[in-house]
Amino acid sequence: MLIQQTSNRFILILILGLLAAIGPFSIDMYLPGFPAIARDLHTTVEQVALSLSSFFIGISTGQLLYGPLLDRYGRKKPLYFGVTIYILASLGCAFSTSVNMLVILRLLQALGGCAGMVASRAMVRDLFPVHESAKVFSLLILVIGVSPIIAPTVGGYITTTFGWKYMFVALTLMGIAIITATHFLLPESRQPDKTLSLKPGPIIQNFASVLRTPQFYTYALTGAISAAGLYAYISGSPYVFMELYNVTEQQYGWIFSGIAATYVLSSQLNNFLLKRYRSEQIIKAALLCQSTAACLLVIGTTMHLLDLFSIIALISVFLCCQGCSFPNASALALAPFSRTAGSASALMGAIQMGAGAFTSAMVSLLSNHTAVPMTGMMACCALVSLGILFTGSTLIKWKARQADIDDQTLEMVKEG
Predict the structure, then answer these.
(1) Domain Major facilitator superfamily (MFS) profile, which positions (predicted)?
(2) Average pLDDT in the 49-71 region?
(3) Distance linking the first and last C-alpha atoms of the chain
(4) Confidence class for position 120, pLDDT limits 50, 70, 90
(5) Which CATH superfamily, name and number, covers 205-416?
(6) Quick one: CA dihedral 39, 41, 44, 46, positive or negative?
(7) Using alpha carbons only, what angle is made at residue 341 by residues 336 and 343, rounded to the nearest 5 degrees?
(8) Is 71 within 8 Å of 121 (Cβ atoms)?
(9) Where are the domains of the chain?
(10) What is the pTM for the complete model shown?
(11) CB-based contact 97:41 (threshold 8 Å)
């Protein structure tokens, strides 16, 4: 089922964006409430932070569960199931009486919420022509990008005015609104396929067949490792800005929001670029620029050459490039799949979250009271991603000469 007309595009993309933003919004919104949660539950902020770790575990592993379900039962039934779990777990978080209870409920919240992240990507592949999918992913980023800009501010306001429990009440209401919009406004984009087995053996074989596709692993890894640089920035930026550059918490919030805004705006620049260039051309140019900015960050922070405005400018360039590369990488990774788009989407999401979690951990482990661990990981991610892109795109074109590939898919990656 492809959406060709423009009348419903706005509503569809908005709902898909909200589904994709469930996870990020659930992370960003409750971060300002850590101290209040710790006081109320008679524990430490470090213990409360375990609820963030459990959320990341749930959102990484849960995506692999929903992929086969979305291909077997259609998109909406597993989506209803997942968002319902999210709603109930969010409400449970509001009534948590201990930090252990909160940690477990946040795990369940993530396991439910990640259904929206997997389904939204799969439904882009279902509902829109292949050659338009990169544009649609750019528009999804516009919705997702609102999260790091407004969610911490909203969470801080709710915590100060009503208390931290009401943050989870707000997330519960958000889940109810999303599942209602999904039911009434989002079409079923794929009918159930009873030929797809949910036994472990066939599921593993299905995942393996996706992983063996050169176009998938090239662009899924390119997008995931490049995006992992964003996680390195998120992990390291509080220390870099507040400790090394002595900005206040309020100033950090404005800096974080401003840099996030450049990421969102650049994803919309990608739509303009797609009118003149192919997705592969945009990714190559973006990663070359991103690698240059990252290397300048490493040199500048190692030699203490960067002031506050210089490091903000280079990080903004880094994320601008991310906003151009990521939508195209996502579109190209999913392009070869129609029947198993759910499984491909789940694998892509799991790879992205796994790479992000790894780089975040490495920034912490390599901490040496400088900005180099953050900028070094950002540079490694950009350079490795660029290397994978050049190697993998060569392999894809060689494979294309050996076998038949869907015309629209091949058009996205062939040389001009």
Answers:
(1) 12-399
(2) 86
(3) 30
(4) very high
(5) MFS general substrate transporter like domains (1.20.1250.20)
(6) negative
(7) 120
(8) no
(9) 10-184, 205-416
(10) 0.76
(11) yes
